[in-house]
Fold this sequence. Notes:
- By secondary structure, the chain is of the alpha+beta class.
- It folds into two domains: 2-96, no CATH class; 107-374, 2,3-Dihydroxybiphenyl 1,2-Dioxygenase, domain 1 (Roll), CATH 3.10.180.10.
- The chain is built from nine helices and 20 strands.
- It has helices at 53-62, 72-77, 83-96, 99-102, 117-128, 186-195, 247-256, 316-330, 364-374, and strands at 2-4, 20-23, 30-34, 40-45, 107-113, 131-138, 143-149, 158-164, 176-183, 199-206, 213-218, 224-229, 237-243, 261-268, 273-279, 288-294, 306-313, 333-340, 347-352, 358-363.
- The strands form three sheets. An eight-stranded mixed beta sheet has the order 6-7-8-5-17-20-19-18.
- The longest helix has 15 residues, at 316-330.
- 35% of the residues are buried.
- The structure holds glutathione.
- Glutathione (GSH) binds at residues 177, 202, 207-208, 243, 271, 273, 292, 294.
- One of its GO terms (molecular function) is lactoylglutathione lyase activity.
Amino acid sequence: MKVLEVPVETNLKQLKLLARFKQCRNHTSQHHLFDVDGSFITRIEQIKPKKCSHIQNVIARYCTRRSFQLSLSTLHFLNCGMAEEAAKAVTPNAELLEWPKKDKRRLLHAVYRVGDLDRTIKFYTEGFGMKLLRHRDIPEEKYSNAFLGFGPEESNFVVELTYNYGVTSYDIGEGFGHFAIATEDVYKLVEKLRALGGNITREPGPVKGGASVIAFVKDPDGYAFELIQRGPTPEPLCQLMLRVGDLDRSIKFYEKALGMKLLRKIDRPEYKYTLAMMGYADEYETTVLELTYNYGVTEYTKGNAYAQVAISTDDVYKSAEVVNLVTQELGGKITRQPGPIPGINTKITSFLDPDGWKSVLVDNEDFLKELHKAE
Ligand SMILES: N[C@@H](CCC(=O)N[C@@H](CS)C(=O)NCC(=O)O)C(=O)O
């Protein structure tokens, strides 16, 4: 095997040369891409002169690795007529992909539909101990919203309930998992919820395969809430669980597209599932997205009840560019291009993840303005 080392180029300062290509003697159309340590990254086949969109894509995908970045000379080596253009196209991507990690992000709220707003408000306030934070009625659009949570929207994750005039029930589907509420005494909370007519679907006790005490209750619309026994926390509304068909793909998507961290991964082979806790800060201090993979299950029905999760950002435009880039690699798609919502002027962008779960990125400043307008 002929190994071709590429000299360090200094004309593109931000691109450190950490790459080299090894070219197979017998397959001149096949290139094996290695990182500086010599570990194999990928194989690139059939690089046609003057057509580098494929190599651009491959490199764009891998040059986000901390240990590997593209060099202009590498592209020259490929004898690709569009080397400079390709480098230009790829360099900003590497920088762009750093943005979600630098951005000011947190989970803001989960949006879902309920058949009777007052009934849910009563269950959440009297049963769970949430506060009703905001209420708005939009008669011209025939819907109302209620925002509930354990603390102010400026700092806490909340639920945004939507009531569509005249619609009294929804299909929750199989993919939506649950919300979780941390409480110091699951047994006590279960008794309170039972007394309020709550449907306890799993009695308190240690989780199968683990030690934490949990229980499950369904709210009046059938949304599951896991109750988890924990010490005091600033964020009792601690999890949003969604089922996914390929956990590694989802972890990568939420890391790259949304800048989340993989906080914890638990595999319970005896119960045939794996969980990944994804979020922006400590799992016990903030709300996390719990992604569940059930062995062998690659698709779920989604129903029409759960809608989306909202996440804050300082720049919806830049964030949408990142999402767009990541969807090309991992799947999913932008469903609303970045920009202000007519009438409200809050800048948002929304998109689907590779499983079709929707997220909305909301401009931080606009979000705060909206809250203060509502006061
Ligand atoms: N098959 C389950 C996998 C996830 C799971 O089992 N989660 C735990 C909580 S982390 C659970 O619900 N355990 C039920 C129990 O302990 O009774 C699902 O899709 O919901």
